[in-house]
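Class, study these two lines:
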Amino acid sequence: MKVAHHFFITICAASDSGGMEIKMKKIILFTVLFLFTFGLVYANDNTANSNENSQKTPPVVIYSVFPEYPYEARKKHLEGKVLLKMTISNEGIVSDAEVIESSGYDILDEAAINGVKEWRFIPAKENGEAIAVKVVMPITFKLTPASKKDN
């Protein structure tokens, strides 16, 4: 399996008064940033191996949901970064996700794992054949000023 480099994704809690419009904008922005970041990282990985005669394409996210920022964590003003290693199968599902660097809070670590397991991808391909890949991804839980006031 090939291992891609790091992505940087920030998951922020928002006030419930934000409505669906803000949530949809966040989902669209997240998806665009995810695709852009992953495409660049994977393309750079391919360039490094250009002397091999293989054609690689990265997985493409087709469904992603922000990991839920648990209410108890928001109430206690817990913030942190979770570094996950995910395996994206040749069927485009997250078949495994494990914490390789904890946020320091089990509740945030579990939320990150549970959230990414819902994501779906068009699988990565090598020479036209779907392959499984491993990806290391930090997910940062950071409260917004509005969400700090709501709790």
